[in-house]
């Protein structure tokens, strides 16, 4: 660690003009039924994890406030969404696909206008570096645009019908109802869009709740939602999730849960629904993605990928590498280079040029990470990198810990933060056994050069995880690739095209194959109500 901790926190006056929040932003309204309704109830104070120096110790900055809705207000938002859907007879679910596309395209243009404001809030609210915040914003919009392209393609193939076993069938896709959309704090905009946008374009109506952190950044977008969609199609709920969400689920009016967060919260939400087995869930959940570094790996490449895979956005990605298995014959070299890599990372405030290590938004996280490190140390591991685990307020300097063994909590628990556990291995079976026994099953990375061995490893992992990355870190992108997981890691698949499928249902218009029925079906296909999005058999 090159800088002293005190040097990381600038004074208010040193913040460049473009990144300042001159006065706290008070958002005392929320979107419901096509209006930005004033909320006169209690507000939740929003503190930034970004620390500034001032008199005394570094202090977190108050950056704004957002509504703490009552259960009644939240229920009303859900009822409004249910009315806008009206059992599939509302304006939005019956609107033509072309019109829906036009609404979403208008929305995209309006959101684009807000780039600077949203990026600034991403930095202040969740401590994301300028570069990563810009990347998140741009990715959210490109996800939206790719979704529209995928939708046009679905619509293009809609003028077909199939004949099988004497039956003529036209396969269509229709919406499901009201979708409760909730993204996570690490990608509050992008990952909210990955459920909200496909759910919306397929004709569902929406209740969206921002995550625990990353709330204010939606304020600049509420007017765009209001202006671009019919009343009641998109509604927002703010407040304490533990208070407002169980009653929403218990009402039975949520048809689909689109949630990215922990499996514990997802399980509790599902259990609160009166018919949990009928609730469709599209979930992105916990993961403990391992990297396996074989003796013949290109060490520089493996270190580079493991460094960025473990520490991008301080390790706060579900796809982050969360445990590294390194063959004993190369582990010392690997540790030395990885420790040097961590030492070369720049720490500081999000707008600082080239910064990688920034403050963590969850106030309880530094202590949680410190506990994991203490637990590992008490069972025989050491912190390898100078300054690893140093803390100040919301800031936690990355810790590389070695040798990690199954008795330690960090071996099993998802850290979701900047602690990198390294496990030495002698026999490849140890690493495969770890993946098989894991309660998670999202992705894995393998580093090596022997093509046959890599092929064997892929075969061993293919029934355990959903993506195997060869000589590269784990990641969700590109968004056209399926994104899913086994066990506690996910439910449903979320590529751009898959998301259109999971937020809709296939229906069939069928008739016996007679000359008369062929004419009738041909006419239906030609005259089809365009609010029915139809597809061919494969889609
Ligand atoms: O937290 C998971 C995000 O989807 C990360 O996406 P990414 O792996 O492409 O950075």
TrEMBL record:
Top-level taxon of the source organism: Bacteria
InterPro entries the record matches: Ald_DH/histidinol_DH, Ald_DH_C, Ald_DH_CS_CYS, Ald_DH_N, Aldehyde_DH_dom, Aldehyde_DH_Superfamily
Start and end residues of each Aldehyde dehydrogenase domain: 61-503
Annotated protein name in UniProt: NADP-dependent glyceraldehyde-3-phosphate dehydrogenase
Organism of derivation: Geomonas silvestris
Oxidoreductase is among the record's keywords: yes
Gene3D superfamilies the UniProt entry points to: Aldehyde Dehydrogenase, Chain A, domain 1, Aldehyde Dehydrogenase, Chain A, domain 2
Family membership: Belongs to the aldehyde dehydrogenase family.
Phylogenetic lineage: Bacteria, Pseudomonadati, Thermodesulfobacteriota, Desulfuromonadia, Geobacterales
Keywords, ordered alphabetically: Oxidoreductase
Molecular-function GO terms, alphabetical: oxidoreductase activity, acting on the aldehyde or oxo group of donors, NAD or NADP as acceptor
Entry annotated with the keyword Oxidoreductase: yes
């Amino acid at each position: 660690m090159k800088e002293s901790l005190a040097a990381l926190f600038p004074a208010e006056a040193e913040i460049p003009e473009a990144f300042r929040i001159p006065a706290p932003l008070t958002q005392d309204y929320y979107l419901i039924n096509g209006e930005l309704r004033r909320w006169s109830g209690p507000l939740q104070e929003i503190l930034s994890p970004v620390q500034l120096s001032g008199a005394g110790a570094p202090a977190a900055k108050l950056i704004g406030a957002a509504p703490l809705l009552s259960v009644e207000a939240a229920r009303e938002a859900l009822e409004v969404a249910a009315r806008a859907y009206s059992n599939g007879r509302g304006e939005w679910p019956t609107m033509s696909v072309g019109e829906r596309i036009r609404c979403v395209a208008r929305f995209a243009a309006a959101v684009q206008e807000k780039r600077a404001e949203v990026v600034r809030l991403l930095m202040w609210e969740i401590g994301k570096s300028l570069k990563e915040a810009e990347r998140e914003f741009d990715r959210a919009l490109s996800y939206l645009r790719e979704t529209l392209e995928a939708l046009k393609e679905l619509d293009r193939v809609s003028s077909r019908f199939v004949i099988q076993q004497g039956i003529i069938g036209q396969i269509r896709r229709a919406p499901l109802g009201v979708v409760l959309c909730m993204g996570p704090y690490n990608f509050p905009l992008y990952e909210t869009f990955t459920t909200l946008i496909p759910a919306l374009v397929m004709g569902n109506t929406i209740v969206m709740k921002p995550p625990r952190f990353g709330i204010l950044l939606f304020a600049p977008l509420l007017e765009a939602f209001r202006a671009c969609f019919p009343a009641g199609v998109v509604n927002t709920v703010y407040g304490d999730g533990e208070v407002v969400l169980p009653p929403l689920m218990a009402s039975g009016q949520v048809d689909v849960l689109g949630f990215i967060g922990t499996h514990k919260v997802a399980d509790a939400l599902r259990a609160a629904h009166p018919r949990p087995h009928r609730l469709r869930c599209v979930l992105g959940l916990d993961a403990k993605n391992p990297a396996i570094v074989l003796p013949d790996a290109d060490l520089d490449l493996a270190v580079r990928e493991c460094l960025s895979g473990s520490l991008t956005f301080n390790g706060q990605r579900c796809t982050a590498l969360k445990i590294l298995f390194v063959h004993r014959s190369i582990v010392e070299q690997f540790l030395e280079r990885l420790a040097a890599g961590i030492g070369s990372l720049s720490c500081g405030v999000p707008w600082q040029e080239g910064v990688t290590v920034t403050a963590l938004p969850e106030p309880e996280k530094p202590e949680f990470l410190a506990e994991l490190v203490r637990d590992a140390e008490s069972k025989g591991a050491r912190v390898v990198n100078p300054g690893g685990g140093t803390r100040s307020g919301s800031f936690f300097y990355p810790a590389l810990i070695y040798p990690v063994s199954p008795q330690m909590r960090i071996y099993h628990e998802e850290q979701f933060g900047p602690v990198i556990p390294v496990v030495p291995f002698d026999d490849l079976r140890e690493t495969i056994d770890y993946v098989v026994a894991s309660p998670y099953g999202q992705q894995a990375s393998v580093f090596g050069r022997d093509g046959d061995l890599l092929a064997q490893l892929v075969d061993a992992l293919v029934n355990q995880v959903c993506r195997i990355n060869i000589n590269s870190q784990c990641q969700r992108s590109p968004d056209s690739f399926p994104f899913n997981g086994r066990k506690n890691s996910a439910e449903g698949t979320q590529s751009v095209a898959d998301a259109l499928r999971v937020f809709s249902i296939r229906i069939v218009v069928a008739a016996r194959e007679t000359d008369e029925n062929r004419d009738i079906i041909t006419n239906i296909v030609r005259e089809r109500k365009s609010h029915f999005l139809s597809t061919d058999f494969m889609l």
